[in-house]
Design a protein that fits this description.
mainly alpha, 8 helices, Tetracycline Repressor, domain 2
């Protein structure tokens, strides 16, 4: 199960990277990464659930540990531009500041929540009741476009 989850994390990272390929750092890239997360989740709902079932997985298994780091680094693009991360962050997703951890949690919850709402069919009725929205998938796409995903504030710098 751990090897399967590891494969899922690598595939999730590839989906996010594919969506963001060729898009400059900034809002458009962050939204593309979010789309990659959601599209992977919708295409692989059972695998996504397994990847989140810690009680079924061996967290110490090297392949799973490494694959989780790969997907976390890919997802980190939602929260910060690559230039904002240190070499330590890029190599192991090492220590983070409180601001980075908060931004990462908010962003991860956002994309994971959208994915689960779509997978579970929880948006179907809302989408059907909204003028100009054709499907739950369109509603999620509009939600990704609507939200401004703000990167984590670099250490020692204020937002401008």
């Amino acid at each position: 199960m751990s090897e399967l989850a590891a494969s899922g994390h690598r595939r999730l990272a590839a989906s996010m990277a594919e969506q963001a390929d060729g898009i400059e750092a900034g809002q458009a890239r962050r939204k593309a990464i979010a789309r990659g997360y959601v599209s992977f989740a919708v295409a692989n709902p059972d695998l996504l659930h397994l990847m989140s079932r810690n009680e079924m997985l061996d967290a110490a298994r090297p392949a799973l540990t490494q694959a989780r780091q790969v997907s976390a680094r890919a997802l980190a693009g939602v929260f910060s531009a690559p230039a904002e991360r240190t070499e330590e962050d890029r190599s192991s997703f090492g220590r983070t500041t409180a601001a980075q951890a908060i931004a990462m949690t908010a962003g991860w919850a956002y994309v994971h929540g959208l994915a689960l709402l779509l997978i579970d069919g929880r948006l179907n009725a809302l989408a059907a009741s909204a003028d100009g929205i054709r499907s739950a998938e369109d509603l999620v796409e509009a939600a990704i476009e609507h939200v401004q995903i703000v990167p984590a504030e670099p250490a020692g710098k204020g937002r401008k």
